Request: fold
Amino acid sequence: MRLPLSLVFATLVGCRITDGQNKDDTGRIVDTGWCSNIGTYWTEATYTVGAAEYAAALGEDDTLSAAACEQLCRDNHWDAFLIQQIDVCRDDGPDADGDQLIYCHWEEEELCEGRAHAAVARTRRGTGPDPVAAWLARAARAEAGSARAFSVMAVELARFGAPSDLRARCAEAARDEVAHARRMGALCASRGGVVEPLVDHALPDRSLFDFALENAVEGCVFETWAALAAWHQARHAADPELRQAMAVIAGDETRHAELARDLDRWLRNRLEPADHARLDAAVADAFARLEARLQRPLPEPARLTLGLPSPDDAVRLLAGLRAALL
Ligand SMILES: [Fe+2]
Ligand SMILES: [Fe+2]
Reply:
């Protein structure tokens, strides 16, 4: 049985729902959310690089240059796109098996910042005088990117011969995201943050499967997680202005997640069973990547201000979401 996501989210976050929205005892809306964006953090790892890969990275003088070392870090990271900068890269020599140990220390961007799309450059930097302002800058940029994503999706769906209802819902979602971007942009500006402008790519002429793959990962996993995290933020954000903004946005994000599910169903009906298996694998991989990232928290003051779940809570929420969806 397919449960409405609003019910799933409310159950997981512990909210009550009245007429599709959560209200306190006075009827005031208190439990809604927005697209999640968690920020950046510094992290480190020592990668075990195979002898052949290491040899290929060496220069003509058989030494590992700084650039080549950083490239090994990026090549071994699960999603190098998220690496913002690398400040330490070190060759720690071979291990007992003859593989090479490469130590890396880097600044990494959290994911779940809105719906990514092939037509939108994935720049996620945010600038502000403090982590919350920077977070808002990235959130506003992500909302603008989501608006572009849904606009292009509506065009692509027309090319695929999709029903007018699905196209209209994408167009409506794009309008939602424009409003979100404006709201986040205003909050960002009030705190001194700077929102990076969008950089668009050309409209992709891609296959139905590629469209379905993006929707499965970006819509059914990441944007759906973002919607659930948003419910948590709306309930727990220490900043009342943020909670108020989330109250406006959360319901929209839940509809977007439902749209992703409906798109997924329509698309799968037009794909082969082997394609379904590839989509399922991509979804499982996306959930695994998400779970790995949720182990790394934002620093406490910013996390509490923004109402983001702790690592333990996030893993619990994700497990519940996955159980409800799969
Ligand atoms: Fe949004
Ligand atoms: Fe959205």
The pocket of fe (ii) ion (ligand 2) is lined by residues 35, 115, 146, 177, 223, 253, 256 (CB under 6 Å). The chain has two domains: 5-38+112-325, 40-109. The first strand starts at residue 22 and ends at 23.
